[in-house]
Amino acid sequence: MSYIHYGSTNFNKQLFTPIKNHEFLSKPKGGLWGSPIEANFGWKEWCEAENFRACNIENSFKFILKADANILVINSVSDLDPLPKIKPNFPVNWICLDFEKLIEMRTDAVQLNLSNDTSNSWSETLYFKLYGWDCDSIIIMNPDIIQIKERI
After folding, report:
1. Distance between CA atoms of 62 and 152, rounded to whole angstroms?
2. What's the Cα-to-Cα distance from 74 to each of 52, 71, 110, 126, rounded to whole Å?
3. Which residues lie below 8 Å from residue 147, measured CB to CB, with a gap of 6+?
4. Distance between CA atoms of 56 and 9, rounded to whole angstroms?
5. CA 1 to CA 22: how far, in whole Å?
6. How far is the C-alpha of 97 from the C-alpha of 10, rounded, in Å?
7. What digits encode the pLDDT tens for the residues 35-78?
8. What span, in angstroms and rounded, lies between the C-alpha atoms of 80 and 72?
9. Rounded to two decimals, what is the model's pTM?
10. Is 80 within 8 Å of 95 (Cβ atoms)?
11. 14: which DSSP letter?
């Protein structure tokens, strides 16, 4: 699978920030974010829908992951059940994964496919449970799995 990162024309491993849990968000600090190029609703589509910012192809790069990368793929809320979690410092029914523990478990990346979620109840959707993960995306937690496909 190929991915795209917007906001930079190349990947610089020296600038990679290690993953840390965030006590107020369902997403971690650090890592490298991207979207599957063939995503049904990726970062570019979300930005367009929300008038957030322009995702310029001139300011992006494509990448693939090494074949032996350990990628955790989340397609539904039930996929979250066996995963380690932290207790967030807010009184809502969100789920905050323990990304630091996932790294200890040798997870290299977490891919969230929101568009695969078939939940009928709003409060049981991936979008609600992992509030802040707004689109089909991947967080790279181990920079060693990244292979640059091409500069755009």
Report:
1. 7
2. 25, 10, 8, 9
3. 63, 64, 65, 66
4. 10
5. 28
6. 28
7. 999 999 999 999 999 999 888 899 999 999 999 999 999 999 99
8. 10
9. 0.93
10. yes
11. G
